[in-house]
Amino acid sequence: MDLTQAFAQGLTPADYEQSLDEKQRDLHALYRKRAKVSPEDIERVAQAGPMHVLVITEPWCGDSLAIFPVVLALFEAAGSEVRVALRDKNPDLMDRYLTNGGRAIPIVVVLDEAGDERFHWGPRPAPAQAIVEESREAVAAGTTERIDVHKKVRAFYAGDSGKTIVEELRALLAA
After folding, report:
1. What whole-number distance in Å separates Cα of residue 158 and Cα of residue 162?
2. How far apart are CA 118 and CA 116, in angstroms?
3. Lesser CB count within 10 Å: N end or C end of the chain?
4. Residue 90 falls within a domain, yes or no?
5. Is residue 147, in this structure, part of any structural domain at all?
6. What is the pLDDT of residues 157-175, one digit of tens each?
7. Which domain holds residue 39?
8. For residue 12, is it within any domain?
9. Which range, of 39-43, 77-81, 130-134, 137-141, averages the lowest pLDDT?
10. Nearest Cα to 38, choosing from 67, 10, 85, 73?
């Protein structure tokens, strides 16, 4: 499946939100309220030209619960169209964007008007990814519980309010 086709077949954000359970919708709403997307951020994204944004994710993904509302707030406010491709229903698409050989999500794929990839980002901002990477050996050795790593990542998201996500996406747009 090419990216244009994946985008065309993707769920609208409203359809994706409907697939969430009540707790997930509540968390999305919370992160949407916390998201720090300034008018300047939106203007910079809008100035980058027309874009289509495809987010590869799944409703159960904790990182996506924090990231998707920020991505949506940034790109929709800038006039870009956003679609969601479910990872587990699109393995060929997901396999283009592996992280350390794994299907980590969410992945944000930004396309130009012609459907060509401008860049992709994900599965999480660099500071959150560092928490995961730094804990990998300790989790494998059994000296750190995976839940403790998730708590650290969630604490990062709560304190960051989406600021790092926006900064990283803006940097990729400017490149």
Report:
1. 8
2. 6
3. C
4. yes
5. no
6. 999 999 999 999 999 999 8
7. 3-123+162-174
8. yes
9. 137-141
10. 73
